[in-house]
Amino acid sequence: MTNPLHSDHDPSTGELQLEERSSLRRVVGLSTELQDINDAEYRQLRLERVVLVGVWTEGSSAEADSAMAELGALAETAGSMVLDAVIQRRDKPDAATYIGSGKVKELREIVDATGADTVICDGELTPGQLIALEKAVNVKVIDRTALILDIFAQHATSREGKAQVSLAQMEYMLPRLRGWGEALSRQAGGRAGSNGGVGLRGPGETKIETDRRRIRERMAKVRREIRGMKQARLTKRHRRRATPVPSIAVAGYTNAGKSSLVNAITGAGVLVEDALFATLDPTTRRAELPDGRAVVLTDTVGFVRHLPTQLVEAFRSTLEEVVDSELLVHVVDGSHAFPMAQIDAVRAVIRDVVAEQNAEQPTELLVINKIDAADPLVLAELRAVFKDAAFVSATSGEGIEALRHTLAEYIAETDVTVTLEIPYSRGEIVSRVHSEGAVVHEEYSDQGTVVTVRLPESVAGELEEFRR
Ligand SMILES: Nc1nc2c(ncn2[C@@H]2O[C@H](COP(=O)(O)OP(=O)(O)OP(=O)(O)O)[C@@H](O)[C@H]2O)c(=O)[nH]1
Ligand SMILES: [Mg+2]
């Protein structure tokens, strides 16, 4: 394992976060309540004992199983206990009830037999499908989108992250308010007949309409707040960009081991958990590479297939970090049954953001992690396809030192080599050159210290006056 050089963080932070999160688990579901619209009768996800349902439309049965396993992991991350899972093979989901009527009956029997209180469907269901299925099985039915929103709501810690998630939840809720519970009765007085046009709403407005209006108002407010926070973040990032320390973004599918890898490389205590979306806010750690150079690594939120569109915006801040960095370390879970599909999913999202921002595609270094637990056949395939990839285990430490050297080489490629003569009176410049670059040669002349050093271009520019 590597030394915790320049770790500017208390290694107990991850531990603390983990504790906090476990205590949060016990009140699962509370985080999805939007306190500010407390009388809106939207569905509250109190997930406890759940049955999973999937429709398998394409691919092999092993892939379908793997998709269900992921849904199960998501459900557990949200704090629920998975009792059973049903998959139905069909060309496309049933328009009325997502799964066909025969399967609905079977599902109802499973729900009754297991005592489940919630059914989770893989995919995004229409409001109509949710209601119809709920009627048929007689317990709460939610979809994958709601589940992911719930996890994000539980895990977001930064103010901007929380605001983004609450906005996404409201966006999801808005079209689904209708029919949410027979409890949504009309307000006293009923609808004010045909004369209740624009501006005359009020007593005759239905409860759903009032709720919708309140949610829209709240959404507008949150949007304004986010704009303000975004500005602050951009300023901060700008300031960070002004310091010439190269930045490395660590991205990849959720649970690939990104945080573990950042810890292994830097020795810092970033939160690691066998749960999806353990990391939601980008965290940055300093590290020193074998050539003595300082870099910063940013641990980012994980990717997932079919990310709810409402959350894409919430991901944006993390993706901007990726696009902005010198090097993108793309971490892959080598022990997963289908790492290729995950690699493709991650690359597709990054490509989209790069295109959208008119940015340059950052250099990507693939890091296949968890080689200690990987199937040798899958590993052999990955080695054959990705010849430049690094193969490591963040937990055993295998390959980490080699990876640190590889990182140094990648970063060095963006460097220039210069010879500087630094007067003896400017010792601070000599220290700076040592910490920000890789010194190739050093000697002492009558005038000062003469160093030949590889430096990031921006630093070399700043030290132009000492060039020889
Ligand atoms: N066997 C094995 N397990 C690992 C390795 N690296 C990470 N893990 C485990 O994988 C799980 C996820 O690790 P994290 O580092 O939290 O993964 P992440 O990519 O940051 O996950 P999210 O932040 O949730 O997206 C944890 O249980 C780790 O202990 C490895 O090299 N080998
Ligand atoms: Mg993480």
Pick out its properties.
disordered N terminus; binds guanosine-5'-triphosphate; 14 helices; 13 strands; 18% strand; elongated; Rossmann fold; GTPase HflX; 468 residues; alpha/beta; ribosome binding; binds magnesium ion; 3 domains; 4-stranded parallel sheet; 6-stranded mixed sheet
Summarize this structure briefly.
With 468 residues, the chain is of the alpha/beta class. Helix content is 43%, strand content 18%. It has three domains: 33-190 and 201-240, Rossmann fold; 243-411, P-loop containing nucleotide triphosphate hydrolases (Rossmann fold, 3-Layer(aba) Sandwich); 414-466.
Poorly predicted segments: 1-16, 18-45, 179-201
Q: Radius of gyration, Cα only, in angstroms?
A: 26 Å
Please give the count of helices.
14
Please indicate the percent range of residues in DSSP E strands (runs of 2 or more).
Answer: 15-25%
Assigned CATH superfamily of the largest domain? GTPase HflX, N-terminal domain
CATH architectural label of the largest domain: 3-Layer(aba) Sandwich
Helix-strand topology string: HEHEHEHEHHHEHEEHEHEHEHEHEEH
Question: What's the N-to-C terminus distance?
Answer: 40 Å
**Bound small-molecule species:** guanosine-5'-triphosphate, magnesium ion
Q: Report helical residue fraction.
A: 40-55%
What is the class of the largest domain in the CATH system?
Alpha Beta
How would you classify the helix and strand content by structural class?
alpha/beta
Query: Which outline best applies?
Result: elongated
Let me know the average pLDDT: 78
CATH topology of the largest domain: Rossmann fold
For the largest beta-sheet, the strand count, sense and barrel status come to: 6 strands, mixed
Tally of extended strands?
Answer: 13
Number of structurally distinct domains = 3
